[in-house]
User: Which sequence fits this backbone?
C-alpha cells in the first residue's frame, strides 16, 4: 500500500531550477511539466527517472512540477502534502494540492496566451495529456527532455539482467502466451500492439529482472505482431545468452534506440496502444509514421491477471510459507510493547521472511505504524518518525513479500496490551472486520466488477457514519507487481469484470487521525463457484492469506452468527496451515489465538 | 416496469414496405433505419411517431427496422422476441435479436460498399448514431422522413393543452428554476442549452400536459439562454392564455417550425446539447449554423431529480393515499383465486385507485401476472394471454398511479392459497426480500451511485446461484415520468451519484420461467442521514410505499434479527398509515397481515 523508494539522488537546489529555466529558454519553451514518472509510467521508477526529486527535492511517489520562467509549482495529493512542504524550498516552489487545484487550471491561470508549454511525451499517457487539452491547453511534446540536458550526473539506466522465469512457476510457455495475445490482435484486425509495461513483458516472455525495487521485472519495451512474433527493445547487455535462448527465435532483441525505426515500419497498419497505460510518445511516433493507432488495453493485461493453475497453486504455496513468518512475527509482537520500535518491528518481520524458502525480497516498503502513525494511510517509517511501540495502543503492519512462486500482501492490526482495548476501538475494528468478511464470503456472477462490490466492505462502517479514504482492493501479480491491473475493488476504477484466477486484496480500514489506524487485509483468489442449479457462471473468493485477527479487538456482540462462524472457520484453517510449521511456544500461542470466539 | 401502448394504427402490410422502398429509391437511398422513437426519444410515443408499428406490425416498446431494396429486418430485445415473431410477416421481415446480432453488424454484412443508408436525425441521438460510425458505417441524415411521405393517414400530432402545475405541488416557481439552470450554463461558459425532453420542460415551466399515455407532459422543445430567457417550441393552440400568463414573458412561445431559425441565431455561441438524450438533428443544425456544440447532460435533469421539500411531502401524501387503494386491493385478492383473471384484477386495482383524491391515471400499464405469467418480466396482459387466477399459485402485480402531488410505483407478489406455499418458493421470496431490505436500510456517503449499491439487492440470491435480469431501481418523477433519469440502481447505468431528494424504486425479483415470478417493490426517497460524528454527508432512504408483504411467503428462518425487525417495523408503519382509512373488514385484515412475524 505504500510506495516511496530508496534513492541516492542528492538534495535539490535553486541552481538546478535555474539551469532548467535556461535550457527551456534555449529551446524556446515558456514552461515545462516534470511528472514523477518513468518511460513505463510505472509505480517504482529508477533513480535516473526521478527527475521530480532531483529538481524539487520532493520524494513522494506521486506528483508533478510545473516550471515557468517567473514561477514554479509542485503538485501532489493528500498523502504527501506535509512531506511536500518539508522537502521543497518555498522560495522556489509554490506547493499545491493536485485535486483541489489541478495543474491544468493553475497553468491556464498563469500561462500567457499562446505560451509554449513543453512536456516529455515519454512521461505522459495520451489520456493524461488529453486532460490538459480538455481545459483548452495545447502542450508541446519535446524530442529530448530538457531536464536531462542539465542533469549532469543523471544516473545511468539500471542494467540488471533479465533471467528466465521457469515453467514450474509460470505455468504456461511463452510461445503459447504469444499465440494467445496474437489471436486477440487478429480478432480486432490489428497488425501489432505496443507493450510498454515491463510487467506485461515479464509475463509474456516468462522473464524476471531486478531494475527497480520491489517489482522483479526488467525495464524494456516490446512490439508483438499478429503473427505472434515479438520485437523486444532492451539493452543487449541485459539479455544474457541463456535468456536469449529461453525467449527463442520468434523474439528479436534490439537496442532501445532501434524503437523509432521499428514503429516506422508499422506504416499503414492498425496498431493497438494503451491510451491510459502507455506513454503518448508511441502513438505520436506511430501516427507520424502513417500507422493507424487504435486505443486498446495492453493485450497482456487481462491474460496476465487471470492466473493459470500453476500460478494459483504457486500463490497458495507462497502464502502458506509467508504465513509462518507472519505468525512468528505476530507472536513476537506480543512482547514488543516498551521494547521495540516501528523500524525494529519491520526489520524483525523482514528477517523472519528471509528464512522462508524462495523469498526474494519485499513486495513493497512495509507500513509499520504504531498508535497515531497507524492512521497515516501510506505511512513510511523513517528514522525521524520512528516511534517506540507503547503499551495499550494499536500497531498496524502492512507488508508483503516476493517469492519465486507468488507475491504476498497482508495487513494486521494488533493491540499491544496488557489492558483491555477501549470499546470504541473494538467496535470499529469489528466493523472493519464485518466489511472484510462481506467481501470474503461474497458470491457473484461473472460480469460483476470491483466497482460494484466495493460498498460491501464499507456498509457496516457507513451505517454509523464512518468510512475509509482508499480503495478496498487491488490486483496482485504472480511474482510480479503487488499492484497489478486491470481489476481492483474500488468505485473509482473502470468497471472491469472480475474473472476466475484473478488475485485481489481485500483491505478495508478505518483511520482516526492522531489516534490509531485499522486495516485488515488478506489476498483473495477469484474462483469458479460450483452452485447446483445456477443458470450462469458464478464466482467466489478463495482466501490465500493465513494469519489470525487479534481477538482482543473483536466485539462479538456486533457480529452475526454467520460472521462468527466465518472467523472461527478461518482461524481453524490458520491453525491447520501454519501450526505444523511452528515451534513449541509459537504453536501454543497459535492454538490460543485461533480458538473459537463463540 | 412495462411500457407498451394502446394504439389505433391498423395492421401492417407488404404494401407499406413496398411504398417505403419506392420512396427510398426516389430519394436515392439504398437503405433506411426505422427506430421505435419519437422526436423526444421518449418512452411513450404518440401514434404519429409509431412508424415501426405502422411499417412492420411490431408494437413492442423497443425495436428498430432496417430496410434495404432486397431485404429487411426488425430487431428487438429478449423481452419481445416472441411478440416480434407473432406480429411481423416472415415473408417481409427477418427477425433479429438486437444484442446477439446488432443492427450495425447486420448492415455491415448486407449493405453494398458505399451504400447510402439514411436515418432520420430527429429519431436518433448522436451517441446512438456514433455506435454505427464505430462499426465503420457512415449513415446519411435525411431532411424529411421518407416513411412519413408514404404514410398517407399518419395521425396528427397530439394537441392536448399544456396546463399550469400549481406551486402547491411544484414547490418552486419557474423563474427560480430558470435562474438556477441559467447559472449552471454560465458556470460552464455556455450561451444556451437545448432541451428536448418534455419532462424537463414540464419541470422547468411548471406545466403538465396529456399528449402521451401515462406521463403527463406536453410535447415540445425548448432553448434556455444564459440570461434565463426561454424559447418554447410548441404549437400555439396547445398553450392556452392562462398557461401563457403562467409561464410569463421571459418565455416566448413559438411554433415548432420556428426552431431551425432559433438554432441558426445561436451562431458563434457555445450551446449545450445532451448527446445521449437529444436527437442528433439539434447538434447537426447547430453546427451547420456555426454554433459550438458542447455535449452535456440536459441541464434540467439533475435539478428535476432532486425533489424539493414540497415535492417530497407531495410524494409522501400521494403514497399514503395510494396505499389505501393497494391495501383494499390486496384484501380483495384474498378471495380472487378461482373467481378473477389477470385483467379483472388489474381493473379492480384501477377502479380502487380511481376513488383516491388527486388520481390522474396510471403511471404505466399495470403488469398483472399470475403463475407462470409472473415470470415474464415485462408482461402485459391481453385478452389472448389473460389467465384465470388459480388457487395455490403466485400473483404478481406491478402498478402505479399519477397523482397531482406525486407518482407511485409498487409491486407485490402474493400467494393465492389456500394451501401453504412450497418451501422453495418461500426461500426465494425471502431472498428477494433480504435484497429489498438491504437497499432500504443502506446508509451511504454522498458520491455513491446506484451502480455501486445494486449488488446489495442481489447478494442473498447470488449466494445460491440465483439472480434477476433487470436493474434494481429507476428514478421516479414528481407527477411526471415513472422512469426518470439520470439516476438508477443498476450496474449498467452511468454512475451518477445519488443525492438527497431523489426518488428511486427498489425492486429486486426472481423469475422461474414457466412457473412463477417474484418482485417486491417500494419507492424510496433519498434523504440526508443525521449521523453523530460523521465527517462527511451521508444519505439514507426513507420508504414512501406502504403495503404489506405476504407473510405466507416469508421464511423467517432465513432472516437475521435485524431483517425481522425491519419487516415488523415496516408492517407496523403500514398499519399506522393505512389503517385509519380502511373500513371494518379491511381493517381487521390489515391488523392480521401486519402482525409481528417474530
Assistant:
Amino acid at each position: 500500500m505504500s510506495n516511496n523508494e530508496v534513492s541516492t539522488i542528492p538534495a535539490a537546489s535553486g541552481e538546478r531550477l535555474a539551469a532548467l529555466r535556461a535550457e527551456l529558454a534555449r529551446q524556446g519553451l515558456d514552461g515545462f511539466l516534470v511528472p514523477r514518472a518513468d518511460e513505463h509510467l510505472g509505480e517504482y521508477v529508477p533513480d535516473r527517472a526521478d527527475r521530480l526529486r532531483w529538481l524539487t527535492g520532493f520524494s513522494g511517489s506521486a506528483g508533478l512540477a510545473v516550471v515557468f520562467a517567473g514561477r514554479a509549482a509542485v503538485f501532489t495529493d493528500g498523502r504527501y502534502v506535509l512531506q511536500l512542504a518539508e522537502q521543497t524550498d518555498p522560495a522556489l516552489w509554490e506547493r499545491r494540492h493536485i485535486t483541489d487545484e489541478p495543474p491544468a487550471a493553475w497553468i491556464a491561470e498563469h500561462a500567457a496566451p499562446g505560451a509554449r508549454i513543453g512536456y516529455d511525451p515519454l512521461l505522459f499517457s495520451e489520456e493524461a495529456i488529453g486532460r490538459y487539452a480538455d481545459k483548452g491547453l495545447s502542450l508541446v511534446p519535446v524530442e529530448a527532455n530538457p531536464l536531462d540536458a542539465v542533469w549532469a550526473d543523471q544516473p545511468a539506466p539500471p542494467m540488471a539482467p533479465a533471467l528466465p522465469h521457469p515453467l514450474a512457476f509460470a505455468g504456461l510457455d511463452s510461445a503459447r502466451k504469444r499465440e494467445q495475445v496474437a489471436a486477440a490482435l487478429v480478432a480486432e484486425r490489428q497488425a501489432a500492439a505496443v507493450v510498454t509495461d515491463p510487467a506485461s513483458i515479464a509475463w509474456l516472455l516468462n522473464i524476471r529482472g531486478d531494475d527497480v525495487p520491489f517489482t522483479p521485472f526488467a525495464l524494456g519495451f516490446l512490439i508483438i505482431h499478429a503473427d505472434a512474433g515479438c520485437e523486444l527493445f532492451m539493452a543487449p547487455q541485459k539479455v544474457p545468452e541463456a535468456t536469449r535462448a529461453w525467449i527463442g527465435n520468434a523474439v528479436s532483441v534490439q537496442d532501445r534506440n532501434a524503437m523509432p525505426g521499428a514503429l516506422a515500419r508499422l506504416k499503414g497498419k492498425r496498431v493497438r496502444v494503451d491510451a491510459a497505460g502507455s506513454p503518448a510518445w508511441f502513438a505520436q511516433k506511430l501516427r507520424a509514421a502513417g500507422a493507424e493507432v487504435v486505443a486498446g488495453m495492453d493485450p497482456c493485461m487481462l491474460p496476465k491477471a487471470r492466473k493459470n493453475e500453476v500460478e494459483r497453486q504457486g500463490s497458495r504455496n507462497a502464502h502458506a510459507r509467508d504465513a509462518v513468518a507472519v505468525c512468528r512475527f505476530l507472536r513476537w509482537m506480543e512482547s514488543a510493547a516498551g521494547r521495540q520500535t516501528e523500524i525494529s518491528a519491520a526489520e524483525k518481520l523482514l528477517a523472519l521472511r528471509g528464512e522462508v524458502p524462495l523469498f526474494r525480497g519485499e513486495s513493497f516498503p512495509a507500513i509499520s505504524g504504531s498508535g497515531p502513525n497507524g492512521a497515516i494511510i501510506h505511512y513510511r517509517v523513517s528514522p525521524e518518525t520512528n516511534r517506540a511501540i507503547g503499551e495499550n495502543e494499536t500497531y498496524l503492519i502492512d507488508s508483503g513479500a516476493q517469492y519465486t512462486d507468488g507475491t504476498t500482501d497482508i495487513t494486521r492490526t494488533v493491540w499491544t496490551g496488557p489492558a483491555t482495548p477501549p470499546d470504541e476501538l473494538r467496535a470499529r475494528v469489528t466493523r472493519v472486520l464485518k466489511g472484510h468478511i462481506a467481501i470474503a464470503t461474497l458470491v457473484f456472477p461473472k460480469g460483476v466488477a470491483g466497482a460494484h462490490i466495493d460498498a460491501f466492505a464499507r456498509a457496516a462502517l457507513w451505517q454509523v457514519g464512518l468510512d475509509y479514504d482508499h480503495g478496498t482492493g487491488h490486483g496482485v501479480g504472480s511474482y510480479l507487481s503487488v499492484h497489478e491491473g486491470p481489476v481492483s475493488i474500488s468505485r473509482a476504477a473502470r468497471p472491469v469484470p472480475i474473472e476466475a484466477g484473478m488475485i485481489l486484496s481485500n483491505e478495508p480500514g478505518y483511520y482516526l487521525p492522531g489516534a490509531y489506524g485499522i486495516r485488515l487485509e488478506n489476498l483473495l483468489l477469484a474462483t469458479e463457484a460450483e452452485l447446483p442449479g445456477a443458470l450462469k457462471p458464478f464466482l467466489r473468493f478463495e482466501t490465500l492469506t493465513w494469519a489470525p485477527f487479534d481477538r482482543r479487538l473483536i466485539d462479538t456482540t456486533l457480529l452475526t452468527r454467520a460472521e462468527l462462524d466465518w472467523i472461527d472457520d478461518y482461524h481453524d484453517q490458520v491453525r491447520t496451515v501454519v501450526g505444523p510449521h511452528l515451534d513449541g511456544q509459537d504453536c501454543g500461542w497459535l492454538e490460543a489465538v485461533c480458538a473459537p470466539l463463540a
